[in-house]
Amino acid sequence: MGSTGTAAPTGPASAHERRSASDATGATLLGACAAWALVTAGVHGGSPEGVLLAVLAVAAGFAGGRICGALLPVAAPCAGAFAALCLAVAAPRLSIAPSSPLGHVGATAALLILSAGAACCAAWAAGTAGARLVLRLLAAGVAGVAAALGSPVGCAGCVVVLLCSLAAARVRRRALGVAGLALASVLVTGLSLAVADDALPGGLASSVEGGLGRHRVLLWQDAAGIAEREPVMGVGPGRFGEFSPAVSENLLADGKPHSAPLQQASEQGLVGLGLLAAVFGWLLYALWRSPGSTQVVLSAGAALTALAAVATVGNALSVTTVTTGAGLLAGIATARPLAEESPEGAAPRAD
Q1: DSSP output for 110-165
Q2: From CA 289, how far away is CA 255, in angstroms rounded?
Q3: How far apart are CA 109 and CA 154, in angstroms?
Q4: Could you give the maximum distance between any two Cα atoms of the chain, in Å?
Q5: Considering only CA atoms, which of 16, 19, 42, 2 is closest in space to residue 234?
Q6: Per-residue pLDDT at 172
Q7: Which residues of 8-47 are buried (b: 16+ CB within 10 A; e: fewer)?
């Protein structure tokens, strides 16, 4: 007996619908971030401009990456890798200066990590073994540049991204890889929150504090205390420095807690922190649903996860070039190249 029900849509049409739903979700989340920053600023005062600029940078970068990745699947990430590398080396505002130990060091490391990630994406998108080797050497060279600039975090991040990209060749189900990246982000964020709450055992706490620096730990503890007092809406965007004793006692402090999750929690409450986590989760979901190859997806995901780790212990997301670059890399990795002539010619997608 024939079934009277209607079969669920399959094939390119349903894939397009899923991608459209993912894009709509991302736009909604980014809009909610902007709206919540305006709400908290209206209630407590503050300057939401930084949050609004970051949201605009991510959205513009993602849209631009989609376009460039569709038109130039190899040249676009390759150009992005060189651009991020040049910015990290040449931009004076991002240079590592002894007089600014907490300044924009994290932004330099983040740009180098994004550069390595873009080079790895370009390598997997390239059609010949020679081109892939050259682009992987570029990613390795970025790690060398990070070491030369005195950025051990940037060097380590670039090496991790390159190793993850090479390991992606053996991954058959991208869902497992994306889940692993999400878990790594949760662990790093949980560690930072545990440090801020002074919840680590004595020996481990001393080791972590030695690597982070006492002043950074004090900033995190101030942020956690502010979040406990104002758990819903925080104290207003950009107002952490007004309530932090550690900022007032240090002349080199820039008024930020140097941790994106803790800054969101202290300035925009748990709602702001949840929105930040949701945006990162959406980026990973968009990568999972990408029509591109699993290797490109996991290379970009590794770079974005390393960037999230840097932002958890630094100030990277306060720099517009970093947020733009993150959106650009995600857009390139989720684009469908226009050169694909048929589903048979498309890169295989492993769930």
Answers
A1: HHHHHHHHHHHHHHHH-SSHHHHHHHHHHHHHHHHHHHHTT-HHHHHHHHHHHHHH
A2: 38
A3: 4
A4: 80
A5: 42
A6: 84
A7: eeeeeeebeeebeebbeebeebbebbbebbeebbeebebe
Residue 184 has pLDDT above 50, yes or no: yes
Burial of 184 (0-12, 13-18, 19+ CB in 10 A): middle
Identify the pLDDT of residue 19.
72
Burial class (CB in 10 A: 0-12, 13-18, 19+), 156: middle
Chain segment 233-262, per-residue pLDDT in tens: 999 999 998 998 888 877 556 778 989 999
Total number of residues shown for the chain: 351
pLDDT at residue 4 in the model: 43
The two three-digit tokens of residue 197, written as one number: 């709450």
The stretches of 49-91 forming alpha helices (DSSP H) are 49-71, 75-90
pLDDT tens track for 25-56: 999 999 999 999 999 999 998 999 999 999 99
Specify the pTM. 0.89
Dump the DSSP string for 100-120.
-TTSSHHHHHHHHHHHHHHHH
For the ranges 4-18, 101-115, 266-280, 311-325, the lowest mean pLDDT is seen at 4-18
Closest CA to 282 of 15, 18, 29: 29
DSSP calls for 181-250 = HHHHHHHHHHHHHHHHTT-S-HHHHHHHHHHH-HHHHHHHHHHHHHHHHSTTTTT-TT-HHHH-HHHHT-
Residue 12's pLDDT is: 57
Residue with tokens 């990430």: 77
CA distances from 301 to 180, 190, 262, 276, 341 (A): 10, 19, 23, 17, 26
What integer is the mean pLDDT of 172-181? 93
Residue type, 234: G
